[in-house]
Amino acid sequence: MIFLDTSVLIATAQVSHARHAPSRELWNQCVRHSTAISTHTMAEVYNTLTAMPPALRLAPRDAVLAVETFLQRLTPITLTADEYMETLRRTANLGRSGGMIYDALLLACARKVQAERIYTWNVKHFQTVAPDLADRIMTP
What we know:
By secondary structure, this protein is an alpha/beta fold. 53% of the residues lie in helices and 11% in strands.
């Protein structure tokens, strides 16, 4: 199983994105039964695509269509309340605070599906909140 971060999906969706080509190449290899995302990523993709600068911004309905298109090839992973609490504790024990919890929650989903590879454009942040997964975290 591979796991995709929001940053990879945004780069895939935006043809003018500096990291579009490698993200798109990875996307072209994705199949639903072996590629996962966090359910929270769906909201992050929607938020990012509808909040970009005007020249790149998608209308809300188009952003929903983009998320639906992504979901045709992705398995969304959710966390239980207990898994959320475990992630909060793990993050606190690492001394991490603030917005890093969101990366930690995404990585908890990757951990839940035992992802062999975790793709992101935020490697350092991900490795900071999940040192146990550091060797699996990479760029496309």
